[in-house]
Design a protein that fits this description.
By secondary structure, the chain is α+β, with helices and mostly antiparallel strands. It has three helices and ten strands, in the order H-E-E-E-H-E-E-H-E-E-E-E-E. Strands 3, 4, 6, 7, 9 and 10 form a six-stranded mixed beta sheet that branches. Strands 2-1-5-8 form a four-stranded antiparallel beta sheet.
C-alpha cells in the first residue's frame, strides 16, 4: 500500500467517525417518543403517541379538557358487529389505564396491556354515543387503582362503517 492510499483511508475513517458522532449528537437532542396505544378493528390498526402528556407528569383539568377537544387525531372505521381491540405499551399498563368514550369512563382502570369491547357499544346512545362517530381516549393514571390522577391521554376517532 502506498503512502497516499494510507492517508486516504485514514481520512475516510476520521470522516466516518465524525459522521457517527454528529448523528449521535443530533439523536440525543431529540425528545423521547411517548409510549404507543393501538386500536385494531378486524385487520386494520391505528397507533398513536400520546395526544397529551404520556411522559409521567400529571395533567391538570384544563389541559385534559383542551386535549379532549383536539381534532388532529387519527381515526378508524368500525363495523358495529366487529370487536375493537385496545392495546397499550407496558409503560401505560403499569400506570393503569381506562378507556374513555366522549370523555366519560367506559371501563374500570386496568393494568393489562390488552382489552376488547364490542364495536356496537361505540355507537349506542345508552353509552353516550352521538351520531356516526365517537371520540375514544385511553387515559393513563399514576399506577394506583381508581386514582383520579391523569398522566397521559391517547385519543382516536371511531367512525361507523355499515
Amino acid at each position: 500500500m502506498t503512502w497516499m492510499q494510507s492517508v486516504v483511508r485514514r481520512r475516510r475513517a476520521v470522516a466516518a467517525a465524525g459522521a457517527v458522532s454528529a448523528g449521535l449528537l443530533v439523536l440525543s437532542a431529540c425528545d423521547k417518543p411517548t409510549p404507543l396505544s393501538t386500536l385494531t378493528v378486524g385487520r386494520t390498526s391505528v397507533s398513536e403517541e400520546a395526544t397529551c402528556g404520556g411522559e409521567g407528569d400529571s395533567l391538570n383539568a384544563t389541559d385534559l379538557t383542551k386535549c379532549l377537544k383536539d381534532t388532529d387525531i387519527k381515526s378508524i372505521k368500525v363495523d358495529p358487529d366487529e370487536t375493537v381491540r385496545f392495546g397499550v405499551d407496558p409503560e401505560i399498563a403499569d400506570k393503569r389505564w381506562t378507556i374513555l368514550m366522549n370523555g366519560q369512563p367506559l371501563t374500570e382502570d386496568s393494568d393489562k396491556t390488552y382489552r376488547t369491547i364490542p364495536g356496537s357499544v361505540f355507537f349506542n346512545a345508552q353509552y353516550g354515543a352521538q351520531g356516526d362517530s365517537t371520540l375514544v381516549s385511553i387515559k393513563a393514571g399514576d399506577g394506583k387503582k381508581d386514582s383520579q390522577t391523569v398522566t397521559g391521554l391517547w385519543s382516536f376517532k371511531l367512525k361507523k362503517d355499515d
